[in-house]
Design a protein that fits this description.
alpha+beta; about 45% strand; eight-stranded antiparallel β-barrel; 2 helices; eight-stranded antiparallel beta barrel; Lipocalin
Length: about 300
């Protein structure tokens, strides 16, 4: 009986194992075509493209920054440093014609060796030139800069070539306008603007400048049209740091003299505008006059008597 049961159990287990093997083979055949996996490759490719795009954008930005820096460097290289703070002499054929006094704030003044009357200026320095605003922001006087064969600094201004040397140890205060000595050899500061100035061409115009107190000056201009008539301008004002006197209160009078010396006067206007400006022509220091109403002072230069 036991053998019979053992045989039956063995047969049953053999059948069960055979059945399991058939089902396993059928299942494997059904799964031979696998479902598609998630599009991992596509996502990776997209991410790679985005990364490349971002990298390209960053590279472009870096290139733009680099270019801007290079441009800034190029611009900076255009600047020059010809004059430092101090006093410089400008020599022509070995003779000192004028001194330039430079402050530490891009301003300064010229100083004539004899009269000690100068022109105030602002300036900018570049690689091959210096631009001076002599007496007015509207003035743009250029000095071409270089070094000569001996290594000396050289400048060309108004068609004239100068050798430029720094006056070592010079005190800028010693080059203030209008400095002279009286008979007792004591330093005396004279008024830099007061005096009489004659028109240098026809000698028919005369400017008289007098101090009215403090920094205010009265200006009287006479211009002879003939032996029997003249035009007269009267105004007042203050010279600014660039030695320019602007005015807007000018009265113009026309005078006519008869044969007996009597004068008849007619006031033409009382609100004339313009300015006087200290100027120099290389040898003389004087005034130029800008009359905004009639241009009466055009092309005229008034030298101090």
């Amino acid at each position: 009986m036991k053998k019979t049961l053992l045989f039956i159990c063995a047969f049953a287990m053999t059948s069960a194992l055979t059945s399991c093997g058939a089902e396993t083979g059928s299942s494997a055949g059904a799964n031979a075509s696998f479902p598609k996996q998630p599009v991992t490759t596509t996502v990776a490719e997209t991410v790679t493209e985005e990364t490349v795009t971002e990298t390209t954008a960053v590279s472009t930005d870096e290139a733009e920054v680099t270019t801007a820096a290079e441009n800034a460097a190029d611009t900076a290289s255009e600047a020059g440093s010809w004059f430092g703070e101090g006093v410089y002499e400008l020599l022509n054929n070995g003779t000192t014609e004028v001194y330039y006094v430079f402050n530490g704030d891009n301003s300064g003044r010229t100083c004539d060796p004899e009269r000690k009357i100068g022109i105030g200026f602002n300036f900018e320095q570049y690689k091959d030139k210096v631009v001076f605003h002599m007496g007015s922001v509207d003035d743009n006087t250029e000095m071409a800069m270089s070094y000569d064969a001996n290594g000396n600094m050289s400048g060309v201004i108004n068609g004239k070539t100068y050798t430029i040397r720094k006056v070592e140890g010079a005190e800028p205060s010693a080059f203030e306008p209008a400095v002279s000595d009286d008979q007792q050899s004591k330093p005396m500061i004279e008024d830099a603007f007061e005096g009489t100035y004659s028109e240098s061409h026809a000698h028919r115009g005369v400017i008289t400048v007098t101090n009215a107190g403090g920094s205010t000056y009265n200006v009287h201009i006479r211009w002879a049209g003939s032996a029997s008539e003249e035009a007269v301008w009267d105004f007042s004002g203050e010279f600014n740091g660039r030695q320019v006197l602007n005015y807007s209160n000018c009265t113009k009078t026309h005078n006519i003299y008869d044969e007996n010396g009597l004068v008849s006067s007619e006031v033409e206007y009382t609100d004339g505008k313009g300015y006087l400006q200290i100027a120099e022509d290389g040898e003389n220091v004087g005034f130029t006059w800008q009359d905004d109403v009639e241009g009466a002072g055009d092309d005229s230069y008034f030298i101090k008597e």
